[in-house]
Input
Amino acid sequence: MTNEGKVTVLLSGRGSNLKALIQQQRGYRIHHVITDKADAGGLTIAREANISTTVVRREEFPSLATFKAGILSAVEATNPHLVALAGFMVVVPQEFVARFHGKLINIHPSLLPHFPGLNTHARAIEAQHQEHGCTVHFVDTGVDTGPFIAQARVPLLADDTPETLAARVITREHTLYPWIVRNIIEGAIRLDERTVRYAPHIIAEARTLGYTTFE
Output
């Protein structure tokens, strides 16, 4: 395990993508979990897997800026090779993005640039899109605006509810995210300024797995 890349995960909720990342560890290791919510379900998942955790509470800081600085300090203390946001409901500041350029990723439950932000499944149904899915992207200072790495798609069915659609999308999240984390750690996917670069085998592998890349 010592030669595997250390990944720090930031989350605010139940931690289903954290669980998938832990279960599919190969070439990387979930080294630390940080949350802004003391009751986040992801903390239980981390502790059951003997992964160290840190809670950075908003109420312990005098301002939003100092709170976000506290998150950055907590992440820096873990000395990660990669930082993976997984349902982390805090927009990270410019200093954070600059510090971890090319080493900071997020998974979002829509086919970006469609439906950034919240309530993506209901919005996709209302817009009558024929397909939906999830996107993993490098993080910039906007909300879900960073360079796209890959997407996984699902059909949007006529009788879908936000709940049924979410359940179908999350199964794709749980395979896409570990695959991308592994390949970034191994150097097969990297960020060059704002352009995502892929090793040649990644394009073919993504196609086989049903993922869309952005070469």
In short: The domain at 1-100 is CATH 3.40.50.170 (Rossmann fold). The mean pLDDT is 96. Helices lie at 16-23, 41-48, 64-78, 94-99, 120-126, 162-185, 200-209. The CA atoms of residues 88 and 170 lie 16 Å apart.
